[in-house]
UniProtKB/TrEMBL annotation:
GO terms for biological process: calcium-mediated signaling; cell chemotaxis; immune response; inflammatory response; positive regulation of cytosolic calcium ion concentration. It is found in: Cell membrane. One of its GO terms (cellular component) is external side of plasma membrane. Belongs to the G-protein coupled receptor 1 family. Its main location: membrane. It comes from the Eukaryota. GO terms for molecular function: C-C chemokine binding; C-C chemokine receptor activity; C-X-C chemokine receptor activity; coreceptor activity. The keyword Signal does not apply. This is C-X-C chemokine receptor type 6. PROSITE patterns: G_PROTEIN_RECEP_F1_1, G_PROTEIN_RECEP_F1_2.
Length: 339
């Protein structure tokens, strides 16, 4: 009996070691590759949104204010990913000061991005449900938008301080950058779950529910398109953010899962999916706008990437369609169109 248990233990131990080695190889390839893909996609998409918002939109509305801050936060966020990719392939070689700096930058921009998404949701709610009031108070809303954006960056810095202060380089088989403090980890997780998931999710559920109800009673050619955009925004947020946050929540309550190789796979894969938001945000929050797409073609024409005539014909067609469909001076329809 003792001999049987001993052999079974050895067999199980060898099997676990083999599975763990396979996981380390998978992580060594999968995570850096994902980081680089998100880095390239996020760099291109968010840079385009930032350039168009600053030089073509020129901050004419509250939406434009948020569409400067969102890609800026995502852009700085993705610029930290090559460092984490290299550290995943080899080890952390950038030193303690760089570790604290990149942890801080990464965290600040994560919170900023999520809080700006929340503000965009509330802004859409105001523009559709309280269209007349929003139109009449546009200048005031612009001021509040700029103040809110500044407060978001300050709040993000403050809630990121624990990771900046306690961030360090540890030797665990290889050098890694992180923070290993149970109390700090609990505080960080609670803050991430609250500001980075539950708050945006609650804002989306409440605001978009009322917006959908308003749209269903509205008239206009843009109603069905606006509903599709809302459902797409909700679906992308839930698909990309829910799995990773759920896995983190499970790990915080059941630490024994950390020893399971299958659970480690879940952490790595869901983290990679969560980071895709940095690539998808430009599409969901900028390129769905006709005005933004027209300015994009203007940018393409200005830098000489496409023949002038081909682009101008597309502008002409888009403008004619827009004028034909927007003949009504209905403020509500205009607000729906901005979704």
């Amino acid at each position: 009996m003792a001999e049987y248990n001993y052999e079974d233990y050895n067999s199980s131990y060898e099997s676990s070691r083999e599975e763990h080695q396979q996981f380390l190889q998978f992580k060594k390839v999968f995570l850096p590759c994902t980081y680089l893909v998100v880095f390239i996609g996020g760099l291109v998409g968010n840079s385009l949104v930032l350039v168009i918002s600053i030089f073509y939109h020129r901050l004419q509305s509250l939406t434009d204010v948020f569409l400067v801050n969102l890609p800026l936060a995502d852009l700085v966020f993705v610029c930290t990913l090559p460092f984490w990719a290299y550290a995943g392939i080899r080890e952390w070689v950038f030193g303690k000061a760089m570790c604290k700096t990149l942890l801080g930058i990464y965290t600040i921009n994560f919170y900023t991005s999520m809080l700006i998404l929340t503000c965009i949701t509330v802004d859409r709610f105001t523009a559709v449900v309280k269209a007349t009031k929003a139109y009449n108070q546009q200048a005031k809303r612009m001021t509040w938008g700029k103040v809110t954006s500044l407060l978001i960056w300050v709040i993000s810095l403050l809630v990121s301080l624990p990771q900046i202060i306690y961030g360090n380089v540890f030797n665990l088989d290889k050098l890694i950058c992180g923070y290993h403090n149970e109390e700090i980890s609990t505080v960080v997780l609670a803050t991430q779950m609250t500001l980075g998931f539950f708050l945006p999710l609650l804002a989306m559920i409440v605001c978009y529910s009322v917006i959908i109800k308003t749209l269903l009673h509205a008239r206009g050619f843009q109603k069905h398109r606006s509903l599709k955009i809302i459902f797409l925004v909700m679906a992308v947020f839930l698909v990309t953010q829910t799995p990773f946050n759920l896995v983190k929540l499970i790990r915080s309550t059941q630490w024994e899962y950390d020893a399971m190789t299958s659970f480690q796979y879940a952490i790595v894969v869901t983290e990679a999916i969560a980071y895709l938001r940095a690539c998808l945000n430009p599409v969901l929050y900028a390129f769905v706008s006709l005005k933004f797409r027209k300015n994009f073609w203007k940018l393409v024409k200005d830098i000489g990437c496409l023949p002038y005539l081909g682009v101008s014909h597309q502008w002409k067609s888009s403008e004619d369609n827009s004028k034909t469909c927007s003949a009504s001076h209905n403020v509500e329809a205009t607000s729906i169109f901005q979704l």
